[in-house]
Amino acid sequence: MDTNKTKDKQYLFDNPKNIKRVLYILYASCFLLVVLDFVIHRHVYHSWENLPLFYPLYGFVGCVVLVFVAKWMRTFLMRPEDYYDNPKDDYDIPDDIDSEHTLKNAADENTHKGQTVQTTNTIGGHDVDA
Questions:
Q1: What is the pLDDT of residues 35-78, one digit of tens each?
Q2: Whole-number Å distance between alpha carbons of 3 and 12
Q3: Cα(first)–Cα(last) distance of the chain, in Å?
Q4: Which of 100-122 are b and which e, b meaning 16 or more Cβ less than 10 Å from the residue's Cβ?
Q5: Is the pLDDT score of 89 beyond 90?
């Protein structure tokens, strides 16, 4: 395998011509949908749905409202950048406790000093898996 070929490999959007093509297709489809909005008869339930360009404006306003709501929610959902870096800050863990020793003791307690305890369930003198 030639390493120069893998480094020089071009993907679809590495070429600026392809990006322009995609944008032209996007613009053409938007224009077509706006034109079809005036041509196609819609079965509406409310009178404001008959307004020209109602659905594009409704979608745009919905997206803007969504951005502002997300910005507002960020004020109380945001955590500091080092939130997960230092767990001792969240809990009052003394610095003199060795975490590896504590984890080993917890593992020993769970396995009864290194030996696993396996219980068997018996029903009517027969061992069953439950």
A1: 888 888 888 898 888 888 888 889 999 999 999 999 999 999 98
A2: 20
A3: 54
A4: eeeeeeeeeeeeeeeeeeeeeee
A5: no
Determine whether 54 is exposed, middle or buried from the number of CB atoms within 10 Å of its CB (0-12, 13-18, 19+).
Answer: middle
Lookup result for tokens 């439950």: 130
Q: Which amino acid is it at 105?
A: N
Nearest Cα residue to 16 out of 7, 8, 24: 24
| Alpha-carbon distances, residue 32 vs 25, 48, 54, 71, 80 (angstroms) | 10, 22, 16, 33, 46
Most confident of 55-59, 103-107, 110-114, 116-120: 55-59
pTM of the predicted structure, to 2 decimals: 0.44
95 contact partners, CB below 8 Å, separation of at least 6: 88
d(CA 1, CA 87): 46
At residue 11, the 3 state secondary structure works out as coil
**Extents of the domains making up the chain:** 12-41, 49-113
